[in-house]
Amino acid sequence: MSAINSSTQDRSRLIPFSSRLKEGRALALDVWSIFSAVNLPADCINLGQGYMNFAPPKWVTTAAEQALQSVPPNHYSHPRGRIRLREAIKAFYGPQLQRDLDVESEILVTSGANEGQYSVFTAFLEQGDEVIMFEPFFDQYLPSVTFNGGKPVYVPLHPPKDSVTKPTSNDWTIDIDEVRAAVTPRTKMIIVNTPHNPIGKVFTRKELESIAAIAEEFNLLVMSDEVYDCLVFDGKEHVRIATLPGMWDRTVTVGSAGKAFAATGWRVGWLIGPQSIIQPTLAATTRIVFCTNSPLQEAAAAGLEQAKERKFFETQREEYTERRKVLSDAFDELGLKYTQPEGSYFILLDISQVKFPEDYPFPQSVLGRGRDFRACWFIAMEIGVSSIPVSEFYCEEHANIGEAYARFAFCKDLDTLREAAKRLHKLKDYLQ
What we know:
Elements: H1 2-8, H2 20-23, H3 31-34, E1 45-46, H4 58-68, H5 83-97, E2 107-110, H6 112-124, E3 130-135, H7 141-147, E4 151-156, H8 176-182, E5 187-193, H9 205-218, E6 221-225, E7 251-256, H10 257-260, E8 269-272, H11 275-288, H12 294-310, H13 312-334, E9 338-339, E10 346-350, H14 364-367, H15 371-382, E11 385-386, E12 388-389, H16 399-402, E13 405-409, H17 414-424
Parallel strand pairs: 1-11, 3-4, 3-5, 5-6, 6-7
Antiparallel strand pairs: 2-8, 7-8, 9-10, 10-13, 12-13
Helix pairs in contact: 4-12, 5-12, 6-11, 13-17
């Protein structure tokens, strides 16, 4: 009898999956899959995803090759990270954080910045603990928080006023009273992302001091996601919140070799903070991945060791400033409003004036989303340049704020950006 039942019953979902997948928006088709190369025309220029189309510096990849030719880096590293990289992080970041960092207790190498952040959530969140996130937020924060039992609490950054004709990322502002109002007895953490993805905002000292005061008052852990710290433009000051009075003891600073050295596929990141934060996070990361890619840790170490002498980050900043200008000039010629980023490698373009036929053959994956999804799809198909709809980086309640924008990445070589700019000129035929 049981054999007959098993042959006729629907066996496609015998075991129910965890509700945390739905809570973390992990089941919905994500924006990266919708706007991936396989779904777009073969000649479409990808300015959506934030990865580079050029190689890391030769002297960094040479260090990777050398590591692969020796025995120790081809085996497990210590879960804390290879000592050479921890020493390099100490030398590079210690002065910036105004501390003599302890490589044994205050630095942790992780499998990319994302895994490092995930491990912090694992180490510190209890079921139902609340985490304050500024919107728009890097989309990985949401599942990382919910998968670890946390509850996201959203505070939107306010877009530039209509009266601002040439907005910069600094015109996106926080209302500190809204931040304070978001705090409840269950609040455990607050995430600060500076320079910010996708806005490019570099939080001011005054803004960070206001956030720090709330963190002190309510005893909150601060996760400072600073993976774009090497890309700050226009003389803007990058303030590390961990350096503000009283904040070292409650802040974990997140860094990334992928963003620093054009090596996003290496998945090498790091956390810097007090032993009271790093030690529990080490316990978590040891059981999640055990250790991080060993030979590429050696390469990342070489990168940090030689960066100052080679003036690498200064040169890289100049190169990215030129890349940014290619896109901003194209948007200026179109007469479209955009947010000039003071950090990171993204530009938000106001696409509210882009018109498209309502009966355009959009795929179902786009039809179920905000207007920005349709606009970005139309631009990718008709103009040949892909971008990312910004409503993806908002909760449902505030998604209407993001629907006015598309995120364009300028972490591409100049020839690619110039061709993209040339194509974008055709947008003038679709403006209302």
